[in-house]
Design brief:
434 Repressor (Amino-terminal Domain); Rossmann fold; 3 domains; about 40% helix; about 15% strand
Length: about 325
């Protein structure tokens, strides 16, 4: 089998080597007729570019690292899948690193990604503010933060759903449906998204003249703990007037629904329920789950577009992009 060079392709197509390079990289000026002619020759000859040589020449790996705290989480996995699809279409491969919410594992992955010479990094969520101190003085790796506030805002671009809006509208919906004693169910208050959702909940109470009392309005639960149901029932015993719950995510909401039904507490007749993330399972529960839907398509597109701009030295650092959310109403919150 003949090994064709880029020079051979140029000669067969009757164009310059530079034109072949522009067509392959989809970069620069050339006519549609030229593009088709070059691609036809490439297909007929079976020409394969030497990517290793290209990468060395351009000082690029055409690889992006993605740090995600929990790949089993519906929102995280959905965003990662969309990021991978968009990046692949633009000629980039991805290395997906599941940190399991471990700072030690995250640091280890960062060093591995540096060693592999990734061109950029996308960091998704996490409890602590993200900081990336590159150990490679020769190549500073640009990065984007999604739903995770960066420590050095001037070094990156922060992209986030409007968590405040989602929480505020969900709480208002519960109140409009007749709830006089709504609560927020959450497992942590450290992450950027959790803080914004709590703020939105509190402000919705304030707007409706309901003074926030942590003992009455905040239900601390963790689905990974065996005492989840016990904590829920203890809270309801202390706060028997509870008639609505805004859950910080759908996993907690679905577990709440299961526990409430098990203990003959009817949803939505006794307690109305709204989740966050609009996972696929929520459509099929009985009752079906009302939830806040995040626009993962828009988040992923903004992230890729922003990161590639930074890689190509065109992006403006220090920006914040807030993506609107939408409330999907189903049976769990409607009388």
């Amino acid at each position: 089998m003949t090994n064709y060079s880029i020079k051979d392709i140029a000669e067969i197509a009757g164009v310059s080597v530079a034109t072949v390079s522009r067509v392959i990289n989809d970069n620069g000026r050339f006519s549609e007729e030229t593009r088709k002619k070059v691609l036809k020759v490439i297909e007929e000859t079976g020409y394969k570019m030497n990517y290793s040589a290209k990468n060395l020449r351009m000082n690029k790996s055409f690889t992006i690292g993605i740090l995600v705290p929990d790949i089993s989480n519906y929102f995280f996995s959905d965003v990662v899948q969309r990021l991978e699809e968009i990046l692949f279409a633009k000629g980039y491969s991805t290395i997906i690193c599941n940190t399991s919410r471990s700072s030690e594992k995250e640091l280890a992955y960062l060093r591995i990604l540096e060693g592999k010479g990734v061109d950029g990094l996308i960091v998704i969520s996490g409890a602590e503010a993200f900081e990336f101190a590159s150990s490679n003085a020769e190549k500073k790796i640009p990065y984007i933060c999604i739903d995770r506030e960066p420590k050095m805002k001037e070094d990156t671009i922060f992209i986030s759903s409007n968590h405040y809006q989602g929480a505020f509208e969900s709480t208002e919906e519960l109140i409009h449906e007749g709830c006089q004693h709504p609560v927020i169910a959450m497992h942590n208050q450290k992450s950027t998204s959790a803080k914004e959702r709590l703020k939105g909940f509190k402000d919705a109470l304030k707007k409706n003249s309901i003074p926030f009392d942590q003992k009455q309005h905040l239900l601390a639960v963790d689905i990974e703990q065996s005492d989840f149901e016990e904590n829920l029932l203890a809270f309801l015993k202390k706060n028997p007037s509870t008639d609505g719950i805004f859950s910080i995510n759908d996993l907690i909401a679905l577990e709440l629904m299961r526990s409430l039904k098990k203990n003959q507490i009817a949803v939505p007749h006794k307690i109305k329920l709204v989740g966050f993330d609009d996972t696929a399972f929520g459509k099929y529960t009985t009752p079906s789950l009302s939830s806040v839907k995040q626009n993962t398509d828009l988040i992923a597109n903004y992230a890729v577009e922003s990161l590639l701009e930074l890689i190509n030295k065109k992006g403006e650092l220090g920006r914040q992009i807030i993506v609107p959310v939408s409330l999907v109403l189903r049976e769990s919150s409607i009388s």
